[in-house]
Design brief:
CATH superfamily of one domain: STAS domain
Distance between the termini: 71 Å
Largest sheet: 5 strands, mixed
Strand order of the largest sheet: 1-2-3-4-5
Number of helices: 5
Structural class: alpha/beta
Oligomer: single chain
Radius of gyration: 19 Å
Shape: globular
CATH architecture of one domain: 2-Layer Sandwich
C-alpha cells in the first residue's frame, strides 16, 4: 500500500480531510446575524439564496420561529440572487410564521431579488419594504 493511501493520522500526521470538509460545509452553513428590533427578529441574509443553500437557510429560519417570536424581518440587502429554491424558502418561512401567529417581512431587497420576487408573483403574498426600518415600524397589514 502506498503512503498516500494511508490516512495521515495513521502516519502520525493530521488528516486534512476533515479540515477541508469543515471549510466546505462552512460555506453552506450560514451565520445569520440576528437582532431584535421593535418586537421583530431581524435576520441578515447574504450571498445567493439559491437551491445550493436552500435547505440550510430554510432550517435556520424555521428554527428561529417559535410561538411568541414569530415576527421575522429578512434583510435582503446583501443577497446577490435568488432562484426557485430560494423563493420556496421564503414562501415556507412566511407560511410557518403565519401559522405561529406572526409574519414574515422582506426588507431592502436588491434589484435582482426584488425582480425575482415580483416575477414569481410573490409580492402579493409577501410583505416587501424598502428598508429594515420601515419593515419594523409599519403596523401589520389587515
Amino acid at each position: 500500500m502506498s503512503e498516500a493511501a494511508i490516512p495521515s493520522q495513521l502516519r502520525g500526521g493530521r488528516d486534512p480531510g476533515p479540515v477541508m470538509h469543515a471549510a466546505t460545509s462552512r460555506t453552506h452553513d450560514l451565520a445569520l446575524p440576528i437582532r431584535t428590533d421593535r418586537g421583530f427578529l431581524v435576520a441578515v441574509l447574504s450571498g445567493g439564496l439559491d437551491a445550493t443553500r436552500a435547505a440550510v437557510v430554510r432550517e435556520q429560519l424555521l428554527r428561529m420561529l417559535r410561538p411568541g417570536t414569530s415576527r421575522l424581518v429578512l434583510d435582503l440587502s446583501l443577497v446577490s440572487h435568488v432562484d426557485a429554491g430560494g423563493l420556496a424558502v421564503l414562501v415556507g418561512t412566511e407560511r410557518r410564521a403565519r401559522l405561529l401567529g406572526g409574519s414574515l417581512r422582506l426588507a431592502a431587497a436588491t434589484p435582482a431579488v426584488g425582480m425575482a420576487v415580483r416575477a414569481a408573483g410573490l409580492d402579493r403574498l409577501l410583505e416587501i419594504f424598502p428598508t429594515v426600518q420601515s419593515a419594523v415600524s409599519r403596523p401589520a397589514r389587515a
